[in-house]
Amino acid sequence: MDPINTVQDYTAAFNNGDADGMAACWGEYGSTLDGMAPHVWTGPTAARDWYRDVLIEGEHHGASGYALELGEGDRAIGV
Asked: What is the pTM (predicted TM-score) of this model?
């Protein structure tokens, strides 16, 4: 799968709340870096673990309804 399709698939899975779909786009050695503690998630479960932690953190702050929108160039924007 090419990188653009992978990003599109990951974005669609994220927007659908599909942690398994996000994980399917991740490699065995993938990692996520975020400002939210614990800041780094690695390995084959990184996508699922990060998403789980996002939902927990969001619940504490009253945030929900997360969505990503792909724009022009090389960035995704949380909307």
From this structure: 0.81
